[in-house]
Amino acid sequence: MSPGPARGRTTGGDGGSGRRGPVRRWQLVRAGSDAVPASTRRFMARARQRRVRAALPWAVAAGVVALVGLIAWTVLGTGLFGVREVRVDGGELVTPVQVRNAAAVPDGAPLARVDLEAAARRIGRLPAVERATVTRDWPDALVVTVTERTAAAAVPHDGRFEVIDVTGVVFRSLPEQPTGLPLVRVAEPGPADPGTRAALEVLAALTPRLRAELADVTVEGLARITLRLRGGREVVWGDATQGEDKARVATALLDRDADRIDVSVPDVVTFR
């Protein structure tokens, strides 16, 4: 019995060779818009819109943050808005150079980073300055407004005349007695000196007539204050208490023919 043809083998074709099946060739073809249903296209469009709307706030926020960061870096971290000028208003006893040196703000320092209160405190340490304020004037200037101390009296001291304000602060030293200021004679003028404070209390209590007649206030002790008037007369004041009563009584007695008026106890006045 002769063997038959092997299973699974395909014969045929030219020359008895094996026959091959048809070769499939694939080709990509772009589908037309009408290949996608309209409902699907609408769904996809709405989905894209939702994604854009969801991302838009984040994109705007990121842009704002970037812009703010750029502005902050420009203002705070560069010299583009740096200090180029320090203007001084209100200074007569202090010069603009003294104020600028006391402010100690470097040229070109970012204007936004200047500590205004610290600069004002430094300027306030100048003896003649009672207070100072510092403000920014964009884009490149500081404005310093100075309030200077007001003279209240002059104190003869070590051959000069020390000018003090109402708190006793010495802020000027002059070689000659300044006109228009009463003299106060104390050992050590200053705001911490009890004699200086007592003399200033007495000055504040004087009537206009007493002040016009005053030559000086001498403080030999806190209970030994004397007013020396023009013409050589004296008013024994005692301590600095009851100043208004003492001033009223002393003024009433100025027309008396007396070289010495004692108002240290205003209810019991003596004079000679």
SSE topology:
Blueprint: H1 38-77, E1 85-89, H2 96-103, H3 116-124, E2 129-137, E3 141-148, E4 153-157, E5 160-164, E6 170-174, E7 183-185, H4 194-205, H5 208-213, E8 214-221, E9 224-229, E10 234-238, H6 243-252, E11 260-262, E12 270-271
Parallel strand pairs: 1-3, 7-8, 10-11
Antiparallel strand pairs: 2-3, 4-5, 5-6, 8-9, 9-10, 11-12
Helix pairs in contact: 2-3
Please, could you describe this protein's structure?
- Helices cover 31% and strands 24% of the residues.
- The chain is α/β, with parallel strands linked by helices and 272 residues long.
- Among the domains are: 85-148, Roll (Ubiquitin-like (UB roll)); 153-271, Rossmann fold (3-Layer(aba) Sandwich).
- The strands form three sheets. Strands 7-8-9-10-11-12 form a six-stranded mixed sheet. Strands 1-3-2 form a three-stranded mixed sheet, with helices on one face.
- β5 (160-164) and β6 form a beta hairpin.
Strand order of the largest sheet: 7-8-9-10-11-12
Distance between the termini: 177 Å
CATH uppermost class of the domain at 153-271? Alpha Beta
The poorly predicted ranges are 1-17
The portion of residues forming beta strands comes to: 15-25%
Radius of gyration (Å): 48 Å
Query: What does the largest sheet look like?
Result: 6 strands, mixed
> Order of SSEs, N→C?
HEHHEEEEEEHHEEEHEE
Can you give me a brief rundown of this structure?
By secondary structure, this protein is α/β, with parallel strands linked by helices. It has 6 helices and 12 strands.
